[in-house]
Amino acid sequence: MDRILKIFVSGAEQDQLAEQLPVIESYPGFLLVKLQQEAVTDIATRYPVEDITAQYVIRVGQRQIDTGLPRIDEHAKTRTHPDYKGVKKLSPGNHHYLVQFIGPVKKQWLSEVTRAGGKLQSPASGFSYVVRANESSLKKITTLPFVRWSGHLCHSDRIAQSVMKYAKRKLNETGAELPRTLVLPGLYIVDFFDSESMKKAAKEVKALGFEILESDKPARLMTLRATTGSVAKRIRELSAVHGVRNIREHSLKRTSNDLSPRLMGATQILDSNNGLGLDGAGEVVAICDTGIDTGDTSSIHPDFKGRISKINSYPIKRFYSPYINNPGGDDGAADYDSGHGTHVTGSVLGDGTASDGLDGIEGPIRGLAYKAKLVFQAVEQEMQWKNAAYYQSIGRYLLSGIPSDIQTLFKDAYDNKARIHSNSWGGGDPGVYDTQSEQLDRFVWEHKDFCVLVAAGNDGSDNDGDGRINPMSVTSPATAKNCICVGACENERPNFNGNRYGNWWPDDYPVAPYKDDPMANNPDQVVAFSSRGPTTDGRIRPDVLAPGTFILSTRSTMIANNNTAWAAFPASRKYFHMGGTSMATPLAAGAATLVRQYLRRDANIAKPSAALIKAVLIAGARRLPGIAGTGTLADNDQGFGKIDLQAVLAPRNSASMEFLDITDGLETGEIWSRELMISSTEIPLRLVLAYSDYPGENLVNNLNLIVTSPDGTRYSGNSSVDGDLTMDATNNVEAIQVNEPALGSWRVEVVASNVPESAQDFALVVIAALDEPAENSMVRVTGNPDISIPDNDSEGISDVLTIDRKGTVSSIAVEVDITHTYIGDLILELVAPNDIRVVLHDRQGASTNNINKRFDVHSAPELQLLVGSDITGPWQLLVSDNAGIDTGSLRSWTLEILAEASTWVEAEAEPALPIPDNDTTGITDDIDIIGQNNSQGNVQELEVWVDITHTWIGDLQVNLNSPSGTTVQLHGQSGGSRDNLIAIYDLDILPAISAFLNTPGAGTWTLSVSDNAGRDTGKLNAWGLRVKL
After folding, report:
1. Taking 90 as the threshold, does the pLDDT of residue 808 lie above it?
2. Percent of the chain clearing pLDDT 90 (strictly above)
3. Percentage of the chain exceeding pLDDT 70
């Protein structure tokens, strides 16, 4: 059987290999080839490879399409296909087709499809897109050389499985597949590909017997109610209406119903005396939930007073109108029913004011981010049901204020400066990515610094009685890719050991080990009811865990006196205990808030991305024992593990941390890389890559994390600990852990394996025994821009490589790979971070083709000018074509620098020179600074000191002049009648010294001293310099 492989090679090596193998397509960082099985083993022993054969299967709905067999041939003729059995012939006109490409998608391919008349609708799995086209356009598209397969997106694949399963539900049947999911009979959500199609479809939808209750044009959503006739038949007819993308039942969203800081490794993080002193100050958190205490800032619970930025109440959505007597009702933001929203808020940011002085507690009952400000969004409303049975089956209060497009919630929060958003609610079909999941992903994709946390849900169940919690019970919007999905582990409260899962929920936990298991005695156990992954496309769920049983937090003063939730708190009616992933999520949101505060305050990252906050929480997460096999990095019970803030923000061992937000995105085939120096084998190397993906049911933009050890061993993201090179094409979070990393230089690479949408940015967290690269160590960075060089354009093109370590240039070389049919047209220049420009190639070579060359101080002597320069910062390669006719492209280039570590150089002088009175010329004295190995390094830091005796220092002016000619005034006739000037000047004391930074430091430094008034005299006794080069 043939296999399709990625072979990770670039530049000249790629060209050589391409002559030997059958190449499907080439990319800057890898080749795509098709090989027979017996040839795979041989090539894999010589190069890093990934077998992507299985990635060509297209998944639609609950089934997969085999694209190894044609459905529509190169003449746009429909062929028989086993996955299209019984499908009727299409009518003339526009339809929606799945168009699969030959491999990872290139931007120019999408442009060609558009030029052929196709309209790109949305990315799909298996290197494919949904494209709207008519017969004429389809014929052009199928003949494009990079199109591998095409077939109609069947109407039946646009209907959620649960819709047909429950099509015959009766008026009082509100249950669904998961035990805690509820629906309103006959209520459906229809998602359209575009708003134009939705508008045109309205008449046809009504003709099929559906009542349109709401039409949201920006969200491309219709909410419908089936009124007459066979529902199943009309749903099938509805799926064939042009533009319909998906049909689902409207699931009712529901809530996902101290000691926690210690269990989350936050004690040291919160300690202001011996720890980091994080408290959420300066951060704004938004919470969407039932309500908050009185809903009035003037009478609000004491634990929130003075820190509420905004409270909004969202009225009942109009599509409930046929079912209730109070359409559009709004009972305000008070928390009347369960107290759920008030409890959640306390876990995020309550400050414990009302618990001050209470007996029986070790400290205040407060949330992790107890100084953060709050934006609260109340979405629970009282429902006046027309059908009285719904009071029993659904309840009097419902989260009926949640908008059809939840981007409304996110925008309101974002506009009020919230950057953390906590959601302890959800519901829907198990594991399904629905419209709310897509809305969440879209908002975060467009607002990269907005971090959304969502409860996994409480649908974990062993109702089949096999002693294991059933998989795939997580629901929307926790199925989104760009949120932090939070599951629950147990709390540690032995006084509640009498409360057991089987006693509370006998149908869900009928047998051991859960039936008689206490719910709060083992913080290293996943809570039985915590919803499990994966999603239907196989993504890991949840991301992390936080405590979720018997959580003590704030109690609403508006609920009934006898409402004690999970358990009362005898010392005060201002608090009580609740449980659920609802309670775990605000604890995780508090942790995320502290992470954001740390990144802004301590790591100097002004606008940390949501991806970086997610990566930090996962990097510190601790695996719970006994759940999955040894070496497993993540599973669908606990995700990556329980949040442990100390492990990542203040490690107990001597590990170092690096937090990187890489905003320059990668295109398909590009590779970002950097070097790590590991200084100890006793501290594990742990890396986490996270990114906010383009909205879509499957992973759209696929980045992969690869780490290479000093001996060449490669590790890839989400393989087992110390695992092999197996790439993950499903998740937008990848982790690598090497328990005993070898000493020396490790290479980290992020590979853009498939990026059909806009360039993908990412975040990376590293925890390890990190060291600055050794003196005289080699720094090697590579760019694979693969960009065209415009013909006869002196401005040309540029590409940038950034070096983020310290040091100075000892030697330097540049390797370039340029294809061009007349290199005598080309000028190549290298621009260093200090703006020194070096010409590498100046129109030599006449009609010779291509430049595949290494430039060093021998072939490009001007590179010697860069010796001693700082290596830190952006290095730019400029390429221009200065004559007509011939064209080419910059495929790749590499910067190789032998770096010297920065060193302090000290020198002093004792001139003992008299300072002439009332003489503006004054005196001067020189000190020569000699760089290491006589290099001409730039100034990174500077200290200068002077020892001058004088009876009136207000007469004196003292200046320092550097080897570059820069002059800074150290003392300017200040100090009045005081005697003697004995002082040290550095950047903190005299900011003007910054003028010397990044200028040459080796050479002659001159101190000048003048007396600018009569009568008083003095002497320059001594002075000195301390310069870091």
Report:
1. no
2. 73
3. 96
Q: Are residues 552 and 540 in the same domain?
A: yes
**Pairwise CA distance, residues 83 & 866, whole Å:** 63
Instruction: Check whether the bond before 513 is cis (ω within 30° of 0).
Output: yes
Mean pLDDT across 203-224: 95
Shared domain for 184 and 120, answered yes or no, is no
Reduced to 3 states (helix: H, G, I; strand: E, B; else coil), residue 336 is coil
Quick: pLDDT tens for 446-462. Answer: 999 999 999 999 999 99
Contacts 24+ apart (CB under 8 A), 232-240: 232/164, 232/167, 232/168, 234/208, 234/209, 234/210, 235/159, 235/163, 235/164, 235/167, 235/188, 236/155, 236/156, 236/159, 237/208, 238/190, 238/205, 238/208, 238/210, 239/155, 239/156, 239/158, 239/159, 240/155
- 628 domain residue, yes or no: no
CA–CA separation, 344 and 585 (whole Å): 8
What is the per-residue pLDDT for 181? Answer: 78
pLDDT surpassing 80 at residue 26: yes
Tell whether 626 is covered by a domain: no
CATH number (domain holding residue 381): 3.40.50.200
Q: Domain count for the chain, please give it.
A: 7
**Dihedral sign, Cα of residue 297, residue 301, residue 302, residue 308:** negative
Residues in the chain: 1029
pLDDT on residue 934? 47
Residues 6+ away with beta carbon under 8 Å from 964: 999, 1000
pLDDT at 141: 97
951, part of any domain: yes
Per-residue confidence at 933, pLDDT binned at 50, 70, 90?
very low
Q: 């009876």: which residue's tokens?
A: 951
SS3 assignment, position 823: helix
Domain hosting residue 188, numbered range = 159-252
Question: Quick one: which of 456, 468, 547 has its CA closest to 515?
Answer: 468
Task: Please tell me the predicted confidence (pLDDT) of residue 949.
Answer: 95
| CATH classification at residue 995 | 2.60.120.260
Kindly state whether residues 607 and 497 are assigned to the same domain: yes
Token couple for 341: 């929203």
Q: Do 216 and 308 share a domain, yes or no?
A: no
pTM for the structure as a whole: 0.79
